[in-house]
Each structure stands twice: as structure tokens, then as C-alpha cells.
Design goal:
Layout: H1 9-13, E1 29-30, E2 33-34, H2 46-59, E3 70-76, E4 79-84, E5 87-91, E6 94-96, E7 103-104, E8 118-120, E9 136-139, H3 143-154, E10 159-162, E11 167-168, E12 172-173, E13 176-177, H4 178-184, H5 198-202, E14 207-208, H6 220-225, E15 229-231, E16 234-238, E17 241-244, H7 248-270, E18 290-292, E19 298-301, E20 305-306, E21 325-326, E22 329-330, E23 336-338, H8 355-375
Parallel strand pairs: 6-23, 8-19, 9-10, 9-19, 10-15, 11-14
Antiparallel strand pairs: 1-2, 3-4, 4-5, 7-20, 12-13, 16-17, 17-18, 21-22
The structure holds flavin-adenine dinucleotide (FAD).
Residues 2-5, 9-10, 15, 21-23, 69-70, 97-99, 101, 144, 305, 311, 340, 350-352 line the site of flavin-adenine dinucleotide (FAD).
Length: 376
């Protein structure tokens, strides 16, 4: 295992200070080791997760070579040549486990923003006082965007959130955590070869959830109750004027509808009457479609993440720069595997606990591949 820094590097360097997992503690588990503390329904702070991952590496005696950055992977006659800043490796097979969130996805419109605005991504954001005083435009309303918007509001900032397609979820329903329900109805185990539209399933935004001690909901209603303004998806910037989609109400109605469907599915599964439902998302009759950016100081891009493959010297990426694979088996590159992507093999693939089933399936394939290639 070649690791450019140390175990749990992304959690040590690329997350903000107040972050807690949005998955409950009982879901923090890897093959052979699970959370065993006294608060299974609580949400872990990041230092605790780092401790868990470090313990896991010891537990399985993982052969990690830290401070070794892979600078290129290219094919050779027997497999792959892996160049690092600490020597060259030859490998019959390679598993890419370099993370799905290495780079912030920032839309092209960012280059049109006036120079006087500060721009920051969640990979660099640590805490509110890191931003210069003044108003903040948070672009994106999935888990990252709403969590950071909430923290900025609580620190006394004026915050406007640009809202595109999003997935609304209550923290709890019928007395249970929503992750418990998703597990129970089999949603997290849905397989990549079972869903109707896999490309879409792989690009569904993260759910609007936060893990807090009081198990509170964090949705657009919670943000507006705390003083946030909402606008639609950011479209264009012209001079100091930013234009936003006029479909904010529709986007929120759709998210409310999908939430209703999910809760209906839970009720059907249980075969009994449902619990109290979240109130519909409150949106102004005519939300602003233009804003003068002169009134803002910082733009925070919570518009998603992507993997970094800048070191992969193989023709295995599609035109969007995503790796072409079937459930983690990379196409057109025998012996090359990928793990840790959204919906790699199951809906839970992007979660920590999703690694177990995916790893088992991929290792089966990899073993067969190694045996076959030795025979050949
Ligand atoms: C903001 C945020 C919040 C999240 N919250 C949750 C949550 O609440 N619950 C949950 O289950 N999941 C959560 N996730 C998802 C979680 O991050 C992933 O499930 C998990 O990190 C995947 O682990 P991984 O080992 O595949 O990737 P990573 O944790 O990203 O690890 C990849 C490793 O590869 C190393 N690396 C990268 N490139 C190179 C290179 N060229 N050479 C050598 N080493 C390299 C990196 O240093 C890193 O240590 C969250 C993700 C984000 C971004």
C-alpha cells in the first residue's frame, strides 16, 4: 500500500474542524473491526475517526508505505510500472484506492467572478474566522454546502445559498436514524447491476444530513430559520452581477416529493401508518434571480468533488475524466482495479462501511485474475 502521507490522510488534512460523520457510529466499521464505544447512535468527530482508522491499520497489520507518492502508473509487458517519489515498483495488478474526493469541482463560471471576491473550496475551508469578514455566497446545498452554511450562520455571518438539485432527508423518522432505515429497507445494498440508470445513480448528490449531538435535521428550512437567503442554481456572472436559475421552487418541490416517496417506502416496508412528516421546504414566491456580487466578500464552492487521476498514464478515462469500470474492474486494463467511488458496486460504496462488500467482491476477481495470469 503506497500512501503519499500517513494513514487517514484525507481526514487529517482535507476536512473542516467542526465536521462530524453524518453516518452513525454503529455504521463506522471495516472488515474485522467496528465501532465499539458507548454511543452507537452518536456521530463521530474527525479525531476519533482518525484514531479508528489508525487502529484498523494496526489491527490488519496493513503493509502501508507512508510518505510515498505515486507519480505515475503505466502499462508494461507484465502488468504495470508504478513510479513513486521513493522508487519504482512493478506490479501484476494495481488497485487504485486514492479517494474520490481529491479535488473540488468548481464550475467554469468561477473564472468570471470579480477579483475582489475571495473564493474557497471545502478542501481548504477549516473554520468561519478563516474567511475575511462579510457576506458569503455558498454555492451548493448538499451535505457539505448546508453544513458549512449552517456553521457560518451560527458564527454571525450573512449567508446566501445557491441551491441546485439536492437530496432532502430527515435525520430521524419514526424514532430511528434515517441511515438505519436506509439500511433496513435495503436501499444501501442496491447493486450497480440492478439500478435503472447507473450513470445518474453515480452522480446523485450527497444527502442533506449532519451528525450532531442532538440528532437535529439540517435542511433548507433550518438554514432559512437561521437567517440564510436562498437563490437558485448559479448560472452566469456578468461583471458584478450573478444570475441564478428561476427554478428554485421547482427544485425544492422535487426534493420534497422524493423525500415523501422515500418515507412512503419506509411506511410500506413496515406495513403500518407513517410518522410525522417534515414540513415542505419554504421558498419565497419570487426568489432573486440576480444578485450584485458587490455585496459579497467570499464565495464558497460546495459544488462537489472529483478524483485526481493526473498520475494515471493509461487510456482508461472517459471524456469527463472519470474512470471507465464495471463495478471497480477497470475496462480495457486487465489487472487494474478501482475502489472507493460513488456507487462503485452498491449504493453504500461511497461510505466507509461500504468498503467491506466491495473489497470482498474485488478481491475475488483479483485472485482469479492473478491465478489465471500465472497459469498463462
Ligand atoms: C466532506 C466529506 C464528508 C464525508 N462524510 C462521510 C461520513 O459521514 N460517513 C462516511 O461513511 N463517509 C463519509 N465520506 C466519504 C468518505 O470520505 C469515504 O467513504 C472514504 O474516505 C473512502 O476511503 P478511501 O480510502 O477510498 O479514500 P480516502 O479516504 O480519500 O483515502 C485515499 C488515500 O489515498 C492517498 N493518495 C491519493 N493520491 C495518492 C498518490 N498519488 N500517491 C499516494 N497516495 C495517494 C491519500 O493521501 C489518501 O490517504 C465523506 C467524504 C467527504 C469528502
Amino acid at each position: 500500500m503506497l500512501e503519499r502521507a500517513g494513514v487517514a490522510n484525507t481526514w487529517k488534512t482535507e476536512r473542516w474542524d467542526s465536521l462530524r460523520l453524518l453516518t452513525p457510529n454503529w455504521q463506522t466499521r471495516l472488515p474485522g473491526l467496528a465501532y465499539d464505544g458507548g454511543d452507537p447512535d452518536g456521530f463521530m468527530e474527525i479525531p476519533e475517526l482518525i484514531g479508528f482508522l489508525e487502529r484498523y491499520a494496526e489491527h490488519i497489520d496493513a503493509p502501508v508505505r507512508t510518505r510515498t507518492t505515486v507519480t505515475s502508473v503505466s502499462p508494461d509487458a507484465d502488468g504495470y510500472v508504478v513510479e513513486t517519489d521513493d522508487g519504482t515498483w512493478e506490479a501484476g495488478a494495481v488497485v487504485i484506492a486514492s479517494g474520490a474526493f481529491n479535488r473540488a469541482r468548481v464550475p467554469a463560471v468561477a473564472t468570471a467572478l470579480p477579483d475582489r471576491l475571495d473564493q474557497i473550496t471545502p478542501l481548504d475551508y477549516k473554520r468561519p474566522d478563516q474567511l475575511r469578514p462579510g457576506r458569503v455566497l455558498v454555492v451548493g446545498a448538499s451535505a457539505t454546502g448546508i453544513q458549512i452554511a449552517d456553521e457560518l450562520l451560527r458564527s454571525g455571518r450573512e449567508v446566501t445559498v445557491a441551491v441546485g438539485e439536492h437530496v432532502r432527508m430527515p435525520r430521524t423518522y419514526r424514532g430511528r436514524d434515517i441511515m438505519w432505515w436506509l439500511d433496513r429497507i435495503g436501499r444501501l445494498d442496491e447493486r450497480y447491476d440492478e439500478v435503472d440508470d447507473l450513470v445518474r445513480a453515480r452522480h446523485v448528490p450527497s444527502p442533506q444530513l449532519v451528525g450532531t449531538a442532538d440528532h437535529a435535521d439540517l435542511d433548507l428550512n433550518a438554514l432559512t430559520a437561521n437567517g440564510a437567503s436562498l437563490v437558485g442554481r448559479l448560472g452566469a456572472v456578468n461583471g458584478t452581477t450573478a444570475s441564478f436559475s428561476g427554478s428554485l421552487r421547482n427544485v425544492c418541490t422535487l426534493a420534497d416529493l422524493k423525500l415523501k416517496r422515500l418515507l412512503d417506502t419506509i411506511d410500506q416496508f413496515e406495513g403500518s401508518d407513517g410518522g410525522p412528516r417534515p414540513a415542505p421546504t419554504r421558498v419565497d414566491e419570487h426568489p432573486a434571480v440576480m444578485l450584485d456580487l458587490e455585496g459579497f466578500d467570499t464565495v464558497l464552492w460546495a459544488t462537489g468533488f472529483r478524483a485526481d487521476y493526473s498520475w494515471l498514464e493509461l487510456p482508461v478515462l472517459d471524456r469527463k475524466g472519470e474512470i471507465r469500470h464495471d463495478g471497480g474492474v477497470v475496462r480495457d486494463a486487465p489487472g487494474l482495479y478501482r475502489i472507493g467511488l460513488n456507487f462503485l458496486r452498491r449504493r453504500k460504496s461511497s461510505f466507509i462501511h461500504g468498503a467491506e462488500d466491495d473489497a470482498r467482491d474485488l478481491v475475488e476477481h483479483l485472485e482469479r485474475y492473478l491465478v489465471a495470469s500465472q497459469v498463462a
